[in-house]
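hiii, so i know i said id send this last week but things got crazy w the move. better late than never?? heres the sequnce for the chain we talked about at the cafe, plus the structure i predicted for it. fair warning i was half asleep when i ran it
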Amino acid sequence: MHDTYEPAAGKKSRLKTFIVIGVWVAILAILITAYMRAQSAREAQAQVDTGIKWDPQLLACNEVFDASPTDSFTTCLAMADEGWIDAAQRIAWAYTRDGEHQNWQSVYDWLVWLSDYDVYAELLSYIVLYEIGESNDVKEDGERGIRKMAIINNPAAAAYLASVYYLGAHQLPRQSNITWLLERAYQQSKFWVMPEEIARIYARGFLGKAQPEKAKALLIDATKDDFPLHANNVAWLFATTDSPQLADTKMAVTLAEKVVAEQEYAENYVYVDTLAAAYAADGKFDQAVEAQLKAVDLIKSAHKQNENPSPQLASFEERLALFKAQQPYVIEETLEAGNEFFESFKNQIEQALIDNLYVEVQAPEVDTLAQP
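okay and structure toks below
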């Protein structure tokens, strides 16, 4: 997943940093969405397991991309009205889309209904009240809901509330410490607060004195979880960061080699690209060139059926040129202010919760007889 760090061509500093941060946010949202969709899949299977007969009309929901009154939308809405969870999620998502049919009241109404089945829909319903409530009383109700879920160990709610508190955007008196909320969310789930994110918070001193050693130790410890995702991302960060407090080229090589040593990951262009960057950072340029040549071949092969090459290919080839010139690949990051960081962090949680409503309906593998 290290491609989240890849820069765009052009200005080498501030523009690169904003692209890096933006893509990190997008990737994180994708990861969080995948996690939540697994939860939704289990709930949908539970419908089947408890005797609810699947209806093929649900497939119409896959053709719904906004709330325009198409035949597919009408059919999906009817299925949602009958009580189908997947349909209700897709309809709620459709009403969030920009355009003339966007309707946040309808979004909220469907989220309230879904709250009985989906904890993330419940959280999003409170966020909608908090963000777009028409009165302070309504906004406060939303914040109370977010706070309630944070207190009962919902990691997304805790991370969101921490951002609200940091930005000073709360309506109610603050009742929890920001650091405590973030660390609690991180301990509960590394999908909502990823190691790279909390490490940046510590290293840059957003919550007090800068603690780069704590940040580095946290990153190393995180590599033990969710292999190879965190091992790869930490290797990439150690190899490419311009922060001397966080750079660790030896550890970058160790982690990257550990990932590609696994047969199922050895031919993955993302992981091979990380390995090449780690070798270059450690001054092993012959090995870096060899690995990067392989990464370029792999990414070309993976996208050979597409009309256009992967948008990442150019950055892979740029790194290859650097390694041939015996130069490491270093990402120059300007230190964004804490407010900028937490505003982006808060927004990506909101977007991930919305994206979780986008459900692709699939026919179950088992048949049952009961009707909903």
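btw Residues 38 and 320 are 37 Å apart (CA to CA). thought thatd interest u
miss u guys!!
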